[in-house]
Specification:
Layout: H1 5-34, H2 41-66
Helix pairs in contact: 1-2
Length: 70
């Protein structure tokens, strides 16, 4: 499976995308904690992050499927 170049490229892109998404979340949370924002900011940021995954992903997936990949 990993010898197939297109599959390896897809898996690498998926990994990097998920890694960067989570890194952005952790950086925003660290800034909130460092700068002593009110306590309700952390769940608000986490909820926004979760919202983008659950609610927006079906529409973004349909949009991405309409575009040529190669």
């Amino acid at each position: 499976m990993f010898r197939n170049r297109p599959v390896r490229a897809l898996l690498t892109a998926q990994f990097l995308s998920a890694f960067v998404d989570n890194m952005i979340l952790f950086i925003v949370q660290a800034i909130i904690l460092r700068d002593h924002f009110p306590g309700y900011y952390l769940p608000l940021v986490q909820g926004t992050f979760l919202f983008s995954y659950i609610v927006l992903s079906p529409w973004v997936g349909c949009f991405a499927d309409q575009k040529p990949k190669a």
